């Protein structure tokens, strides 16, 4: 009997076996990894405050800076500076910065002028901002980001100790009632659930530049972005992926520490943004790529074999029971995560997005393999 004949004779058993294996793998991710975030205790108590430098890169961000920069400048923190790197802006970004410099003496700025013979991405702007920083602790956010409270810097900074060099925060998006916004916030929630939980499991692999902090000495000791400077993206996730480990990294998820950003205005814009960041995944450490791919692949084959078993009326009672069990576990963990990360109106739609995101990510995978990455960071 050849392999094709064996598969034909044992087709039902093979489908059942694959379904059970994928179900167990999915339960491992939810119960073994993602559930860690539910039981994580946010650190309380006071620690000695250290001077902090907040770095924001701005490229044609006059409207966002005028709207959100005051929330960064009015933090309840005793000693900090804010550095806005004006990266070749052609709008009135410089005028907005100048207006606020007159009001806030702890605001500083540096400007990059355009050179048509020399292309650069966000990493150059960040490096210039880091070099200009006076303080050891660096906190990063974007021009279109708003801290959720005036305790943002306090909450982030208190995690730094002699051992801790990287602090990963949560950066969500503003809530609007639209299908696009609903999916963006779901996608952001799931990604955060992964990188926060993986850190708690001992595998920190990324952070987001909307809410990230690390030591200036770490940046220069590890030669900054040198190993991936040629990539447009990766200023946040690849830097963390290279330099974070279970002993030097901490997370901060208190609601006062969150930031909110302006979401993409169209699915096309969202696809471009995700494509720009998706390409960095192949540069992750092998263990991280294995963990991330394992979840996606097991979820894909879970749904495929689920559909095959139901359509062929095979072990319907067991299959439906297994589906309901996984769904309940999934919904419980997502609901608890939504509460911890202060997200709303995502629970029911998550059941559809659990499948839709597989299609979305497959499209991104194909797109990044056969097309050149964009040449602009904004």
Description of the structure:
With 378 residues, this protein is an alpha/beta fold. The chain folds into two domains: 3-38 and 287-370, no CATH class; 52-196 and 203-276, Alpha-Beta Complex (Spore Coat Polysaccharide Biosynthesis Protein SpsA, Chain A), CATH 3.90.550. Helices cover 50% and strands 13% of the residues. The chain has helices at residues 3-9, 11-33, 62-73, 93-103, 122-132, 152-157, 179-200, 216-221, 237-243, 267-278, 286-311, 316-340, 349-370, and strands spanning 52-58, 80-87, 107-112, 137-142, 145-147, 166-169, 171-173, 212-215, 249-252, 259-261. The strands form two sheets. A seven-stranded mixed sheet has the order 3-2-1-4-8-6-9, sandwiched between helices. A three-stranded mixed sheet has the order 5-10-7. The chain is elongated. It starts with a helix and ends in an 8-residue tail after the last helix.
Question: What does the largest sheet look like?
Answer: 7 strands, mixed
What is the strand content?
A: 5-15%
Which whole number gives the mean pLDDT? 92
Q: How many domain modules?
A: 2
Give the termini separation.
58 Å
The CATH architecture of the largest domain would be Alpha-Beta Complex
> In CATH, what is the class of the largest domain?
Alpha Beta
Number of helices: 13
Q: Which series of helices and strands comes N to C?
A: HHEHEHEHEEHEEHEHHEEHHHH
Q: Please tell me what the overall shape is.
A: elongated
Strand order of the largest sheet: 3-2-1-4-8-6-9
